[in-house]
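User: Okay, second chain of the day. Same drill as before: sequence in, structure tokens out.
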Amino acid sequence: MLTLGNMFVLMVLATICAWLWHNHGLREKALDKVKQHCAKLDLELLDENVAFKRLRLARDAQGRKRLARVYDFEFTVTGEQRHPGTITQFGAHAAIIELAPYPFEIKTAPPSAEIIEMSQWRQEHKRWRP
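Assistant: Same drill. Structure tokens below.
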């Protein structure tokens, strides 16, 4: 027979399960944001994972204190060293992605134009002079 006490325990268990399911979905959204950010910066996300670190109060863009979830992850540039990073989320919205300092190469574009002599250019672009 189902008593009021049993119903209360079942409701508490259902609430805990729903909260865990919701947190898993938020973790997946954080993982997607980190993957996009790493791809944009040409970094490799290690372990394809973000790990929950803590819940804390943090200020959002409007300066209000809100409950934020903080996740840790690791990335690499060269494949040799691991560098830490964090993502802070307010609900389903990523607020801040912070990366530890890491080495990077400055990519220079190959020269797109030829170097020509000034005298040659003047000959080709000669104007009529009186």
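The chain has a mean pLDDT of 84.

User: Thanks, on to the next one.
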